[in-house]
Every structure is written in C-alpha cells, then in structure tokens.
Amino acid sequence: MSTSADSFARIAPQLEGQAIELPSWAFGNSGTRFKVFGSPGTARTVEEKVADAATVHRFTGLAPSVALHIPWDLVDDFGALRRHAEDLGVSLGTINSNTFQDDDYKLGALTHTDPKIRQKAIDHHFECLDVMDATGSRDLKIWLAEGSNYPGQADLRGRQDRLAESLATIYDRVGPEQRLVLEYKFFEPAFYHTDVPDWGTSYAQVSALGERAVVCLDTGHHAPGTNIEFVVMQLLRLGKLGSFDFNSRFYADDDLIVGAADPFQLFRILFEVIRGGGYGPANPDGTSEVAFMLDQCHNIEQKIPGQIRSVLNVQEMTARALLVDRDALLAAQEAGDVLGAHEVFMDAFSTDVRADLAAWRESRGLPAHPMRAYAGSGHQAELETTRVGGTQMSWT
Ligand code: PSV
Ligand code: MN
Ligand code: MN
C-alpha cells in the first residue's frame, strides 16, 4: 500500500524540523574486541568528524547536531570547535562522559568504595559541564560501565547509595538550561550485576535529583523480548523520557543501523513517542523534550552513508507512525474491536511512504534520494584522496 496524496500532505508539516543527533564516534573506526577495521577516508581529527556529520546533514536535512564524547573528542578550544561546526551548518549537541577507560575505574567510578576515585569520576563530569558551557550543549549524558562479575563481589545496596550521592553532586552543577540524562543498560561490561541496568533504576535515580534529570533509552540495551514501546509509554507518562539512543541489535549491544533489525519495533516505538506527546519541538527554541540521537558504529560499512541510511530510516518510520489514523484506532479500541484496531495500526505500518518522502525532500531543496545522491557525489573518493597521513580516529 502506498500513501494517498491527502494523507501524506496531512502529516508532512510534522516532518518539518525533525532532528536526529549524530554521534561523533560513528565517524571513527570501530569494531569488536576481535578487530577494528581501518577504512580509507576516515576522520583523523575531531574537526573531521564534525565535518562528516555536517555532510550527513547536507544530504538529508535531518541531522543538525553532533554529540561529542569526552575525552575521545577532547580539544584545546571548544569555542573554536563550536565555530567550526556552525560554519559547517551544524551545532554541537550532547556531551557524553566516559568513566570506562581508566584503570582507576576497574571496580567502579561513581559507585566506587574509595571516595578519591568517586571524586575523580565526579570531577570528570564537572569537566564535561565546562565543555557544555563552551559548546552551548544542553545535555550531559551519563552511561556507566559499573557493576560486578560475581555474586558477593560487591554490596549492591551500598553501590546504589553511593551512585545517588555522586549523581546529586554532579546535578548540583547542572545549569538551569542544561539536563543530566542517565542511560541504562542491562549488562556488559559487567556480567553479574550492572548498577543502572534498567529504566526503573534510571528513573528512581533521576527522580531523586530533580526536574532537569531524565532518562536516556538506548534501544539496544534491553533483554531480548523486552517490550520497549511499553517502556517509552511509561517514561513519557512519568515525564522522564529525556532522549533516545537509536540503533539496532540482534543479540546484545551491536550498535547496528537503526531500523535494520526490526523496522516494526522502530515503528511501534515511534508511535508511542507520538502518542505520548514526545514528538516534535516542545520548547520555544525548537528543541524537543525527547531528543533523538543515534548511538551506532559502522564497523564494515562506510560511515557517512551508514549514518545517512540511519536518519532516513528514522524519518521514514516516523512518517509511517504519523499516518496511524488515531481516531479510527481509538474508536476500534473502545468498541473492543480487536482485529479492527490491529488493522488500523498495521495499515499505517504497511504504507510505503518512500515516493512521497522523495518528492517532499525535493520540494525543500534536498536530494530526493540522499543515499544515491551521496554515492554519486564523489565525496567519498575525495575524502579518500585528501585524508592521507595522520592517524585515523577510533572509538576506543
Ligand atoms: C556502551 O553500551 C555505549 O554504547 C552506550 O550505549 C553509550 O551511550 C555509548 O557506549 C557511548 O558511551
Ligand atoms: Mn547508548
Ligand atoms: Mn550501547
């Protein structure tokens, strides 16, 4: 089924201004613990990663900001990096902290029993907040690699209490326009227990902090079979869904292209975001309360097209989720028409919006087919010939 011109025209205004933040680390070389493959043309500097993100935005109009990871993206002058980004037509977005690559953090960072190590981890977050002041970023995103491997190894309750204390100290320094966003992940790198394993723990921790502390839902961080759209619904209902890290996974935390593994799941998630009022600009400055971000890497495919494909997948599935006839759905639900309601839902999911989206992009001065346009642009070949010498960036 394809869309009738009418129904696409109805939803098109809602696609206007959709923004999906790109992770700087998607533009560095990445891999598994078995091998990181180098690829020609890969960014050698933070500035080149930002330039690659700007290229994705140029071809899609969907990715106006790029998230940084500290210290992976540490530079001397963040003001200059901000100007560099703005010159390229993008801004610097979420700042991600990193407390997982330092020997001191082997047994924990914000949860560590040693107050000196906890303070070191807190100071790192203060440094991230300073970076945010220079970049104009709104969100400090915290993903913690903390936990234990063996039953009895650690005092679960003590760690949770220390986490609450450390987060409160960080939150005290979060500015009135800034947010603290706490991500959860059910396992890895700790294999027995993780200190922030699920949305409930993240919710409990951020609720204790205050209004500007919210939850990040990374789609790849749930046990197989988890009903992620239910989590989306609940966090929106509680006013605590701050952001998404979009990606796909088949087994564990694969960070594959969003919408590649289970497009229907992406549809269901986006439907709940829309249904719960989390879609679209909610603030006067055009920012949304629920930030869409990618958290992906491209180990074997080209990185810029990988990111282009990803934001297009989100756009396409957003369009399909917007097409759900909510009135008909509600009527069927309230009438107890099980199959009728299901059909309304599936009709939207089964709608092919690609031709309409292509025409709509063209009408806005964008390439109708960004993947094809990029492939035909010669940009990749240019990167491969100009980016010689130096050391390619890698995300570990
Ligand atoms: C590790 O699982 C992870 O993928 C988290 O999802 C973070 O968001 C990301 O790394 C960057 O720190
Ligand atoms: Mn993530
Ligand atoms: Mn992850």
Q: How would you spell out the order of helices and strands?
A: HEHEHEHEEHEEHEHEHEHHHHHH
Distance between the termini: 44 Å
CATH class: Alpha Beta
Bound molecules: alpha-D-psicofuranose, manganese (II) ion
Query: What does the average pLDDT come to?
Result: 96
Percent in strands: 5-15%
Backbone structural class: alpha/beta
Which regions have little confidence, pLDDT < 50, spanning 5+ residues?
Answer: none
CATH superfamily: Divalent-metal-dependent TIM barrel enzymes
Number of helices: 14
- What's the structural domain tally? 1
Protein name: L-rhamnose isomerase
GO molecular function: isomerase activity
InterPro entries: L-rhamnose_isomerase (IPR050337), Rhamnose_iso-rel (IPR013457), Xyl_isomerase-like_sf (IPR036237)
Organism: Nocardioides lentus
Describe this structure in words.
Keywords: Isomerase, Manganese, Metal-binding. This is L-rhamnose isomerase. GO terms for molecular function: isomerase activity. With 396 residues, this protein is of the alpha/beta class. It has a single domain, classed as TIM Barrel (Alpha-Beta Barrel), CATH 3.20.20. 43% of the residues lie in helices and 11% in strands. It has helices spanning 5-15, 46-60, 78-87, 115-135, 156-171, 199-209, 228-237, 263-275, 303-322, 326-334, 338-349, 354-363, 370-375, 379-386, and strands at 22-23, 65-69, 91-96, 139-142, 147-148, 179-183, 193-194, 213-218, 241-246, 291-294. The chain has an eight-stranded parallel β-sheet with strand order 1-2-3-4-6-8-9-10. The protein has a two-stranded antiparallel ribbon with strand order 5-7. Helix 3 (78-87) links the parallel strand 2 (65-69) and strand 3. Helix 4 packs parallel to helix 5 (156-171). The longest helix is centred in the N-terminal third of the chain and has 21 residues, at 115-135. 45% of the residues are buried. The model has no long low-confidence stretch (mean pLDDT 96). Residues 143, 183, 218, 245, 295 line the site of one manganese (II) ion (MN). Alpha-D-psicofuranose is lined by residues 96, 143, 183, 185, 218, 245, 253, 255, 295.
